[in-house]
Amino acid sequence: MRLSPVFSSLFYLSALSAPSLALPAVLTLAKRTSGSLVTIAPKASTCAGAEFAKECKTAEEAAPFINQSFRTYGITTPGEAAALLSTMAFESDDFRYNINHVPGVPGQGTRNMQSPQFNMMYAQSLKLAAGGSDPSAVLAQLTANPQYDFGSGAWFLTTQCSDTVRAGLKTGQLTGWQAYISECIHTAASPDRQAYWERAAKVMGISTK
Question: How far apart are CA 14 and CA 200, in angstroms?
């Protein structure tokens, strides 16, 4: 695999969001539109018919918060961005959920569907006081704020994944993404999960050929 050389200095997931947020100057990523995010998460074009309408966010609504999370946590490569976009889209069923409903683990959620223990750590990093040790209360506080809700994936990558895993993601290689899934997310790189990554990689200008 190789990274596409055709980049601009700003990363836009939503052309309709104002103001659009630029990533650090050292990064040059291709200009994106809300349609690109829909390419990754096809159902995110609308929330019509969503089972839990209050949890659902469209691509247009999600984009500025994803951009902000990349700025906040210093996500500066197409490979890491593709991994995060695909994980969030896959885990939230195209941004339709931010709470684990099946099997219904109390306190599990946010857009990357973090386990309660990591949500507690994430909340502590944000210095959120409310909720105490109640996993559901902590989750409710995180999901109530879209910036926190969409920021969990980037927080997890930058605080819980090893330098080796991150280095692998930065190459844009399939093997790097597989290591991220198995060694950091601690799950299987299933075909349906990989399909999300391949779409995200394409959007981010990474050749998967």
Answer: 15
